[in-house]
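Q: Here's a chain of 180 amino acids. Please give me its 3D structure as tokens.
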Amino acid sequence: MAGLVDGEGSIYATTNSRHGGTVYPVVIVAMTHYDVLVWVAEKLGTAPPHEHNVTNRREHPDLRTQWAVSVTGRRAQDLCRALLPFLKVKWLQASLIADYPVDARCGPGRGIPLKVRTTRSLLFAELAELNRRRRWPGEVLGPDGRWYDPDPGGLSAFGNDEEIVADMIAELWGGRAYQP
């Protein structure tokens, strides 16, 4: 299961506008092999696989159907806690979900406490940053909004002179200073 989540899955948080923007965790596994996802759904005790990424198929009808199985809230947290020792790629995301405050609920006349909302919002932002697309691990967001390697070409191999490395990176970025 950990291998499927690491390779074909996603761990993130999303909001539910029907409940005042409540933020909750999600673990989803999506792929084109339906039978594997039937097995995943059975193991997780969740609904059978549903069609996923339909928009992409409309634009490219020759693509195979992608299916998905997901768990949310407490079940997502329990899954992350169980898989945490075995995950390699998504370990950080799972560790954030493992500490996620999932028990607070809103209802008629009852809102989620500010401290819990704030914690959830911070975890939401941290998960979004971890899941942001990069070309390779370790890249940082540059001043122009594009991703850059903070150590292009292994400049740290020239020693620990941060000033030289910062000047080289600034030169790559057209004179703007590097700020991680």
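Q: Can you summarize the key feature?
A: The chain has a mean pLDDT of 79.
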